[in-house]
UniProtKB/TrEMBL annotation:
The keyword Hydrolase applies. GO terms for biological process: proteolysis. Belongs to the peptidase S28 family. The keyword Cytoplasm does not apply. This is Serine carboxypeptidase. Residues 1-21 form the signal peptide. GO terms for molecular function: dipeptidyl-peptidase activity; serine-type exopeptidase activity. InterPro entries: AB_hydrolase_fold, Peptidase_S28, Ser_carbopepase_S28_SKS. Keywords: Glycoprotein, Hydrolase, Protease, Signal. It comes from Coemansia interrupta. It comes from the Eukaryota.
Length: 474
């Protein structure tokens, strides 16, 4: 997750009928299309399912490129083809915009439920082959996919941000014959079992705004109460924050951590910073203790987002979804991917690191990992084999050309991107480019353009545009 939509969607083509010109309206970008896929590209399950995709034909002219994206862990929507930076690129290059739903998200479901037995078909290999199959059809018989004539020679650029940035990079690495280039913004390609760096990135943002020390102190004050075993004090603390008193202490700590970082991935512009507004502004109240400021901050987030007790329980109760296999649970699918792919469990820093903590010490591996087997069955091995994940899916990126990697210096996921705070994690990038965008947060370069965008974001877009033009031989 990431973009905001609203561009018109009815377009047309003209053709001569005798001596008069007629306009044939094309489907709007909200029109759903379906592409048939096998449940398992590499196994014995030969059943098929329908994968949803959307198309924006507005800017396409014969011979133009195809800009292929996926929302990743969200349902498809017109915002991904109508109002992102790729929309600007398509307009400049006469391109076709296509977004494809990821298996097990939205309405693209290979199986009837989200049990562990069904989710075993959620492998990286199957995910990538889904997109590759679509790309092959676009190359070999585009008339089966699109409502306008599209050349078999149209080059395909794959783009995405966050997890979908992973897919963009992997597609270029694994299918260079199909994918001419990839724009991978804030791609979370490096797995970490204990991802305490998540909050360290957040802490750097808080430090820049001047409230990191008080925020960290507030988290310690909360921990003192949650670890006290004083039921009345814990219930009183929950009530003061406005979070459900039915939650256990660990789920309460997890919910507070999630609410605290609600705006951490919002774009920083030259005129606004949501972290400053929603967090640090409360800590500037000199009459409030750190704990009181923290309570005011979290309470404000709950109010601004219209959350009620039921939605907070659904957000915080880690036991939800253990016995519920119904489709449409984004969090359940994401949890399966973490359990079986790359971990990235967002925990507090171990005490031996000496790092400041911006998350409760109650949030460690013992909080996250048991749910893997509880939710999906004993066939799930814990801990997840992050070393094999990196060996298979990070190392595959070494030496691959025509990938544009970006990450914001304040990106909360930065240390799982190739542009980590310790330096670039890839050592061989001939023909590819890594850019750290100063002052930016998560996937800021691929968002819709705004008048008050940071200059660093504008420069990153310009650099990416130049690379795309190079890949397309424009």
């Amino acid at each position: 997750m990431l973009f905001q939509a609203l561009v018109s969607a009815l377009v047309g083509i003209s053709y001569l009928a005798g001596t008069e010109a007629a306009v044939v309206p094309l489907p709007p970008s909200s029109t759903p299309y379906w592409f048939r896929q096998p449940v398992d590209h590499f196994g014995s399950n030969s059943n098929t399912w329908e994968q949803q995709y959307l198309v924006n034909y507005t800017f396409y002219k014969a011979g133009g490129p195809i800009y292929l994206t996926t929302p990743g862990e969200s349902p498809v929507g017109t915002q991904y083809i109508d109002n992102t930076h790729f929309t600007v690129l398509a307009k400049a290059t006469n391109g076709l915009l296509v977004t494809i739903e990821h298996r097990f998200f939205g309405q693209s479901n290979p199986m009837p439920d989200l049990s562990g037995a069904s989710l075993k078909y959620l492998t990286i290999e199957n995910v990538l082959e889904d997109f590759a199959s679509f790309a092959r059809s676009a190359k070999n018989h585009p008339q089966s996919l699109f409502s306008v004539p599209v050349s078999c020679r149209s080059k395909i650029i794959f783009g995405g941000g966050s997890y979908s940035g992973n897919i963009a990079a992997w597609m270029r690495a694994k299918y260079p014959d199909l994918i001419q280039g990839a724009w991978a913004s804030s791609a979370i390609v490096y797995g970490r079992l204990q991802y305490y760096q998540f909050d360290q990135s957040y802490g750097r943002h808080l430090e820049a705004l001047g409230c990191a020390q008080n925020f960290s102190q507030a988290v310690k004050d909360v921990d003192d109460i949650l670890l006290s075993k004083d039921a009345l004090a814990i219930s009183d603390l929950q009530s003061r924050f406005g979070v459900p008193t039915t939650l256990g202490v660990r789920d309460t700590a997890g919910l507070l951590a999630a609410l605290s970082t609600t705006y951490s991935m919002q774009a920083v512009t030259s005129t606004s910073d949501y972290v400053d507004q929603s967090v640090c502004s409360f800590f500037r109240n000199k009459t409030a203790t750190p704990l009181e400021a923290y309570i005011a901050s979290v309470s404000s987030v709950i109010q601004k987002n219209g959350m009620n007790q039921q939605s907070l329980v659904q957000m915080g109760d880690s036991s939800i979804g253990i016995d519920n296999y119904a489709l449409g649970q984004v969090g359940r699918v994401w949890y399966y991917m973490a359990c079986t792919w790359n971990g990235n469990w967002q925990i507090a820093p171990p005490s031996n690191t000496g790092l400041s903590s911006y998350r409760s010490q109650l949030l460690d591996l013992d909080y996250f990992e048991p749910n893997c087997q509880n939710k999906f069955g004993n066939g799930i091995e814990i801990p997840v084999d992050v070393q094999s994940y990196n060996s298979n899916w990070f190392d595959i990126l070494e030496g691959v050309s025509n990938i544009y990697y970006t990450s914001g210096s304040l990106d909360i996921w930065r240390d799982s991107t190739v542009a980590a705070s310790t330096g670039n994690l890839l050592t061989k990038t001939p023909g590819s480019t890594i850019v750290l965008i100063q002052g930016a947060t998560h996937v800021q370069d691929l968002r819709a353009e705004m008048a008050d965008d940071l200059d660093s974001v504008k420069r990153a877009r310009q650099a990416g545009d130049a690379l795309v033009a190079k890949w397309l031989n424009i």
